[in-house]
């Protein structure tokens, strides 16, 4: 039997945590193992319960969510953090992602999107709302564009299909969305992404997009 995804809720509003706990506990694939009211408590709870996914508010007393996310990422790299906050300013978005968050959602997100984000983070995939993805890519577009590299500059150049998939990843598409758009199996998408990561020496989707931007591939 498949084990449920173990979740830690971190928010200084007790009522919001209660609502989240009730919502997530209604899903058989999720198990809320602990709660915390600030980043410091989150670190203590993570040390005890070793959650798979952490839903993290960013602005909290004692220790803020960005700092807590950074420390969790360093101490427990297999624990995936999703920023779940009311703030959609660029400063919070970029700080959260730089700290190691695998997702950035606003608190008014639809429950189904929240579920999708948890599944994606648990798989080690990034999940961003379209408006957030647009801002991230706009930030990348402001970076000086490198001259397109010659094939010999990369030990194993990306195929046309891999470039196509990488562009869709940069637009915020999930594996499922890519598979549906290209009419291929989701497992095939995963295989392509694995090849892309190997060729670019990237550890994840976000790093692959950043490196491909720096190399002038997309």
TrEMBL record:
SUPFAM superfamilies assigned: C-terminal effector domain of the bipartite response regulators, CheY-like
Name under which the protein is recorded: LuxR family transcriptional regulator
GO biological process: phosphorelay signal transduction system; regulation of DNA-templated transcription
Sequence positions bearing 4-aspartylphosphate: 57
Family matches, as Pfam families: GerE, Response_reg
Keyword annotations of the record: DNA-binding, Phosphoprotein, Transcription, Transcription regulation
Top-rank lineage group of the source organism: Bacteria
Molecular function in Gene Ontology: DNA binding
InterPro entries per UniProt: CheY-like_superfamily, NreC/VraR/RcsB-like_REC, Sig_transdc_resp-reg_C-effctor, Sig_transdc_resp-reg_receiver, Tscrpt_reg_LuxR_C, WalR-like
Origin species: Leptolinea tardivitalis
Domain called HTH luxR-type: residue spans: 151-216
Limits of the Response regulatory domain: 6-122
PANTHER family, per database record: TRANSCRIPTIONAL REGULATORY PROTEIN NARL-RELATED, TWO-COMPONENT RESPONSE REGULATOR
Keyword Iron-sulfur belongs to the record: no
């Amino acid at each position: 039997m498949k084990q449920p995804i173990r979740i830690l809720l971190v928010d200084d509003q007790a009522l919001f945590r209660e609502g989240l706990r009730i919502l997530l506990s209604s899903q058989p694939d999720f198990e809320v193992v602990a709660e915390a009211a600030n980043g410091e408590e989150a670190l203590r709870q993570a040390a005890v319960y070793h959650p798979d996914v952490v839903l993290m508010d960013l602005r909290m007393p004692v220790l803020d969510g960005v700092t807590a996310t950074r420390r969790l990422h360093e101490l427990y790299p297999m624990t995936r953090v999703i920023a779940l906050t009311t703030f959609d300013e660029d400063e919070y978005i970029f700080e959260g992602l730089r700290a190691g968050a695998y997702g950035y959602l606003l608190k008014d997100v639809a429950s189904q999107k929240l579920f999708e984000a948890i599944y994606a983070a648990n798989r080690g995939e990034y999940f961003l709302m379209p408006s957030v993805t647009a801002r991230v890519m706009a930030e990348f577009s402001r970076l000086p564009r490198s001259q397109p590299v010659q094939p010999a500059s990369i030990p194993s150049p990306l195929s046309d299909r891999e470039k196509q998939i990488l562009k869709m990843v940069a637009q915020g598409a999930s594996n499922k969305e890519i598979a549906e758009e290209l009419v291929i199996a989701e497992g095939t998408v995963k295989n392509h992404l694995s090849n892309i990561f190997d060729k670019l020496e990237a550890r994840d989707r976000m790093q692959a997009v950043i490196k491909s931007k720096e190399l002038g591939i997309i």
